[in-house]
Amino acid sequence: MSRWTIFHYRAARCGRQNRRHRRSTRAGSLALRWSSAMSANATHQPRPHWGKATSSSAEQLFLQGPHSRGSELLRAFRIFIELIRGFRALHFVGPCVTVFGSARFGETSPFYALARETGALLAGARFTVMTGGGPGLMEAANRGAKDAGGSSIGCNIVLPKEQKPNPYLDKWIDFHYFFVRKLMLVKYSYGFIAAPGGFGTMDELFEVATLIQTGKIRSFPVVLLGVDYWAPLVSFIRDSLLASTAINPEDMDHILITDSPAEAVGHILKAATEKLGLRYVRRPRPFMFERGI
Fold first, then answer.
1. What Rg do the C-alpha atoms of the chain give, in angstroms?
2. In contact, 141 and 115? CB cutoff 8 Å
3. C-alpha to C-alpha distance for 80 and 75, rounded to whole angstroms
4. Angle between helices 178-187 and 69-90 (to 10 degrees)
5. pLDDT at 38
6. What is the pTM of this model?
7. Do 208 and 192 contact (CB within 8 A), yes or no?
8. Which residues pair with 225 in a beta bridge?
9. d(CA 145, CA 127)
């Protein structure tokens, strides 16, 4: 057997071995992914609150590590389409103020009345009230806006079949991905109000604070509604983060903590008109079939 024949024989043999190895590796990877997906589905428990949970597995699959390049490309297109859908739906809703808050506080809670009054005053100042669209304090803010004859918007991830959005929305948009939803809650707002809430509210609040601190968005006003509720968090920020120079003193300048809805709305209106240059003008006409409220 000549050297040339031996070379081709060995190359072919190595090629067959490499193909077998790739097939076995691919099978093992698929088995591992299937096992992970099955275990995730087995441990998944439905969440009771609309506005906080999702019935879609799209984001769970997206965050489970690398997938095939084809599926990642398709997912990128899906995210792009979801972004475009959000832009088209919200482009003409007017200047918004986003109200964050828990879905767990009902009408009997004093926080509900506080959020409802805040929504009414925001509508009186001609802001569109934007929330996660769920029950609790999100519903209260939307309800207050409707009480005052204002506009009310809800942004949420995909609606679970057994739940419904609150009945005080002029428009609501469903998203598959949390990060797309959070983008929409930030992009169209001139101020942010954090009513009492849990992990979701804290996540949204600190994301806004981080975007302002890093200059990704302008220094929009941020209001913590409920002095007693937020006082321990503010004390931690001042006594720990600020004292250890993890943040700068000016990082706290745009944050107001209050029990007064009138003070909260006045603070946002003043910052929006005097500092951010918001002016009331005639709404532009859509030319790409967008729809307002």
1. 25
2. yes
3. 9
4. 30
5. 38
6. 0.76
7. yes
8. 258
9. 9
Tokens 């919200």: give the residue: 90
φ, ψ for residue 123, nearest 5 deg: -65, -35
Reported as type and span, the H/E element at residue 172 is strand 171-175
For residue 153, pLDDT beyond 60: yes
Q: How many CB atoms lie within 10 A of CB 27?
A: 10
Instruction: Report the alpha-carbon angle 130-131-134, nearest 5.
Output: 145
Angle CA 167–123–87, to nearest 5: 70
Domain 83-275 has CATH 3.30.2130.10: no
How far is CA 91 from each of CA 84, 88, 199, rounded to the nearest angstrom? 10, 6, 29
Contact assessment for residue 104 and residue 248, using Cβ atoms and an 8 Å cutoff: no
Could you report the per-residue pLDDT of 132-142, keeping only the tens digit for each?
Answer: 998 999 999 99
Look up tokens 């809703």; give the residue. Answer: 93
- Please give the C-alpha separations between residue 223 and each of 106, 107, 128, 258, 267, in angstroms, as whole numbers: 21, 22, 16, 7, 8
Predicted local distance difference test score (pLDDT) of residue 201 = 95
Helices (H) and strands (E) in the chain, counts: 9, 7
pLDDT tens-digit series, residues 211-252: 999 999 999 999 999 999 999 999 999 999 999 999 999 999
Largest CA distance in the chain: 94
d(CA 282, CA 11): 73
Question: What pLDDT digit, counting tens, does each position of 34-57 carry?
Answer: 444 433 443 444 444 455 555 556
In whole angstroms, give the CA distance from residue 152 to residue 96. Answer: 9
- Residue count of the chain, please give it: 293
**What is the identity of the amino acid at 291?**
R
Q: So what's the pLDDT on residue 63?
A: 75
